[in-house]
Amino acid sequence: MHDDDYWQEDGGRNWVANIDATEALLEPLSVHLYERAAAQPGETVLDIGCGGGRTSLELASSVGERGTVLGVDVSGPILAVAHERGAAVDNLEFRLANAETANLGADRFDLLFSRFGVMFFDDPLAAFTNLRRSLKPGGRIAFLTWRSMEENPWLSAPAAVAFEILPPPEPPDPAAPGPFSLADELRTTDLLEAAGFNEVSHTPVNHEMHWADVDSTLNYLLNMGPAGAMLREADDPDLEQRVRTAVGDLLNKFLTTDGVRMQSAVWIVTASN
Predict the structure, then answer these.
(1) CA dist list (Å): 73 to 24, 114, 175, 205
(2) What is the per-residue pLDDT across 217-229, written as a single tens digit (0 to 9) for each?
(3) Which of 52, 71, 77, 168 could bridge across to 81 with cysteines, CB 3.0–4.6 Å?
């Protein structure tokens, strides 16, 4: 996966600091993925990029005592949260591992599952090939990934405003590891088929991201959004205040009587072995 050191250090610690807010934000999307993945009693499941373990716990409940779940992640700090949460769950195990290259066994899993955990592979073809080897014949994969940044104004609109003040980053390679590396439906289908999967399907899901108020939205986006790392590196209170004011003005345009609501767009991708 992309930049393991980042997830072991600042990236992992920042994620842990914002884990409750992030999980609350993503839970409505997770529900769609659980439904499509349809983990069954007695199945063996791999949760790729399991993070703090919320998805793994849900899967462990679905497969029951006759099933098992293995959650893998590259971040020690985040996985520590998962270990704490899952300590009393007998059919659940967590492992610090890079799913791109780890030996996960052969013909082991009924289901490969991932909520935003497969977009950071350095070599996605090698990664999906490695993952398919661990899947039983007739097994399946189901994962959630972002559609294009343009289709996700909850990220793109605040970033555009922030980068009118901050030095804008170089335009990313659309295929480079990152949140939007699997946004292209045709490219992702080609990758999965080249890795040996078949019956690849993309289901689009549109969902409004919801925060209680402008301040909580602003704090979250400037911690976890594209401009956050640059602001932390700049360590300039005046610059940060200018960005906060500009992004706050934007967010007020999305404020409703029920809090801030901004559109997101994802794919639920499924395929079989």
Answers:
(1) 20, 11, 22, 25
(2) 999 998 887 787 7
(3) 52
